[in-house]
Design brief:
- The structure holds two protein chains of two kinds.
- Chain A is mainly α.
- Chain A has a single domain, classed as ABC transporter involved in vitamin B12 uptake, BtuC (Orthogonal Bundle).
- Helices cover 73% and strands 1% of the residues of chain A.
- Chain A is built from 13 helices and two strands, in the order ααααβαβαααααααα.
- Chain A has a two-stranded antiparallel sheet.
- In chain A, helix 1 packs across helix 6, helix 1 packs antiparallel against helix 9 and helix 3 runs antiparallel to helix 9.
- The N and C termini of chain A lie far apart (47 Å).
- The relative contact order of chain A is 0.18.
- By secondary structure, chain B is mostly helical.
- Chain B is built from 19 helices and no strands.
- The mean pLDDT of chain B is 87.
- The chains are: A mainly alpha, B mainly alpha.
- At the A-B interface, helix 4, helix 10 and helix 13 of A face helix 5, helix 7, helix 16 and helix 19 of B.
Amino acid sequence: MDFLNSIILLTNFIIVPGITYGSQLALGAIGVTLIYGVLRFANFAYGDLMAFGTMIVILVTWFLQSKGITFGLLPTALLALPVGILLTIAVSLFFDKTVFEYYRNKKSDPVTFIVVSLGIMFVLNAVVRIIIGPNDINFMDGHKFIMKAREFKQMTGLNEGLALKSTQVITLITTIITCSILFYFLNKTKTGKSMRAYSNNEDLALLSGIDPKKIVLLTWIIVSILATVAGTLYGLDKSFKPFTYFNNLLPIFAATIVGGIGNPLGAFYGGFLIAFSEIGLTYAYKKFFKYIMPEGLEPSTLIQFISTDYKFAISFAILIVVLIFRPNGIFKGKVI
Amino acid sequence: MIKNSDFKICFSVMTILTILVGLFQSWGIALSMLNLCLISAVMAMGVNIQWGFAGLINFGVMGFLAIGGLATVLISVPPVPEAWSAGGIGILISGLFLLAIVFSVLLINKKIPNHKYKNYFIFVIIILSIPLLKFIAGPSISKIESINAATSGFLGGANLPIIFSWFVGAILCALVAFVVGKVCLGLRSDYLAISTLLVSGIIITIVKHEEWLSRGVKNVIGLKRPVPYEVDLQNSEWFIKLVEFLNSSKLSNVLDFDERTSLLNELVISSSGVFVKLCFSLIFLAVVFIILYFSEKALNSPWGRMMRAIRDNEEAAKAMGKNVVKQHLFIFMLGSAIIGFAGAMLVTYDGLFTPSSYQPLRYTFLIWVMVLLGGTGNNYGAILGGFVVWFIWIQSAPFALLVINIFTNHLDETNYIKEHLVNSVPYFRYLMMGLGLLLVMRYRPKGLLPEKIIKN
C-alpha cells in the first residue's frame, strides 16, 4: 500500500506536470529548431510569436463566448485555434516578406538575423501589449477536472490523490497528434523530404530543383502552427501573460540546444528533459521517502535538491553543461 | 578628441535634447533624463567594446548590471551585527567550502590526464556539492533571514562610501565574466548569444532569491549618495543665498516680505532637487569622458587594431600569431567590467536596489539597440545611441498620447477604443524601439555614426 501511495505521489506531482510542461516546451522547441535548421538563425521573436498567436485565440474565444458558442466539455479556445493559426501564419509571412527576405537574399551573417529578430520581438511585444494588455488572463472554460484528488482517494482507498486536469490531457493528446503529423510529414512525404534536404545542404537542394521560396514559406507555416498550438496549450494550462511567454523563450532555447539545434526529434526529447529536470530537481521528496523507507528511518529534511526559486536556473544550467560537454547537443544537431 | 566631427555631433545632440526637454517640460525632468542617458551611454560603451571592437555577442548585459547593483549594496550599506553573529560563521564556512570545491575541480581538470570519464567525474562532484552546500549554509541562512525580516534580514555591507562600489562592481563583473568567458567564449556567435542570455538569467535568479546577500525581492532602499541630500541643502545657508542670488530679479519684483519668503522657500525646494541632479550629471559626465578617452586611446592603439583584425578575420589573426582566445577573454572581461560600473551607477542614482526589476528587454536588449542604432565599433556612436534611444524610450509615451489624441479627436472621451489606446500608451515605446532597430538595420546597417577605419 505504501509503495502504491509513493508511486501515486510521484505521478501526481512529477510525472503528470512534467509531461504537460514537457509537451509545451517540446512543441515550442521544435519550432525554434525548424527555423534554425531551414532559415539558419536563432529566432528571438519566437516567444512573442507564441504570445501573438495565443492572443488571437483568446480574442476569438471571447467573441465566440459572447455569441454563446462553446465547445461543450472542451475549452472554447480549441474552436478558436484555427483562426489564431491563420493570423499567426499571416504575421510570420508578413515579417518574412518585409524583413527576413531582404537579409536572406543578401546572405547576411547569423548575427544580423538575430538582431533583426530582436527588432521583431520588440514590435510583437508592443503589439500584444497594446491590443490585450500586460495582465494575467485566464481563458480556460469547459470541464476543469477529469479526475479530482478527492474522487481518486475515494475510488481507490489510497492516502494520496491523483488529480488530472482536462488541460493536461488535452495538451498531451494535441502534442501527440501534432508531432505525429509533423514527423510523418518530414520523414515520409516528398515535400518534407525536400525540406530536410534543403536544411542539410542548401546548394545541393537547389541543384536538385527544390524551390527555396516554397521551403521557406512552408517552414514559416509549420512554425506558426507550432507556436500558436504551444502558446494556447500553455495558456490553457496556466494562464496567459505576455511577459511569461517572453520568459518561456529561455527554457525553449535550452531545450532546442540540449536536443541538438536543428534536430526536431532532439528538440522534442530536449523539451521533456528540461521539463522533468526542472520539476524533478525542485520537488521535495520528504513524503515520498516517508512511504518507502522503513519506520524510524524517515528523513527529517525536505530532501529537495534545490529550492523551487531556481526552477528556471536549472534549465539554464543543464544547457551550459551540455554546451561544455557536447556542444552539438545530446542528439547530433544540424539536420532535420 | 574635441576636433572629431563625431564628437561634435554626439555632444551637440545631447545638449540640444536636454535643453529642449528643459524648456518644454521642466529642468528636473531634463536633468534626470540626461543622467539616465549618461548611464546608458556607459552601458552602451561597455557593450560596444565587446561587440564593436571584438565581435563578441554578449546578451548577458542584464546579469552584469545586476552584479554592479549588488556591489552597491555590499559596499555602502552598514553591516548588520546581529546577522553576522548569528550566521556569519556559517556563511564564511560555506564560502570556504565553495572555494574548496572550485579549486578541487580545477586541480582535477589540470592534474589528471585526459580520460573518457574525467568530465563526468567533475560533473558528479559539482552536482553533489550543491546539496552539501545547502546543507552547510541552510541553517545560518535561515537564522540571518529571520533577524528583523521586515527591515533587514541580510548580512548588510561594508559601510564604505558608495563611490567605491562602482569600482568593486566593475571588478566583480570582470571576475564573473572570466568564469562565463571560460565556459562560453569558445561557442559560435548565436550559441554565445543564447548562452550568455541564459547565464544572465541564472545571475538574476541568484540575486533575487539569496535574501541573506541582497534582501532579494524585498529590495534595499535608502542607499547612500555621493552627492548632498535635498533636505540638507534646503537648510544650508550658502544654498539659500545662492538661490536668492540666482533669482534676485524674480524676488525683487515681489514687495511683500511674507510673500517673498514663501516664494524663496518654494524656489529653494525646487532648485535643491535640480542641484542634486546636476551634481550627479557632473559626476556621470566625468565618468563618460574618462571611459571615452581610454576607449578611444585603446581603439586607435596597436591593441585596438589587433582586436579589429581578430574581429574581421579570426583565422588570419591566428596565423599572425595572435592569441585569439586570450584576447577574447580579456575584452569580454573589460566590457563586462564597464557594464558593471554602469550598473552600480544606475543603482546609486536610483538610491534603491530592486532585483526583480531586472528584465532582459529593458536591461539587455535595449542596451543592444543603443549600440546597434548608434554605430557599432564607434565609441561616439555608442554614446549617441545611448542618448537617442533613452530619449525615445522616455518621450515615446507622451508622443504616442499626442498622436492618439490627434487621430481619435472626433471620438468621445468614453469611447472604448480610445480609452484602451490611452491606457496602453506605455507600450508604444517597445514599438518605437522595434521599428527603429528594423529601419536602422535595413537602411543604415552600420548605425547612425558608422565606424571610421583609420588607414595608416
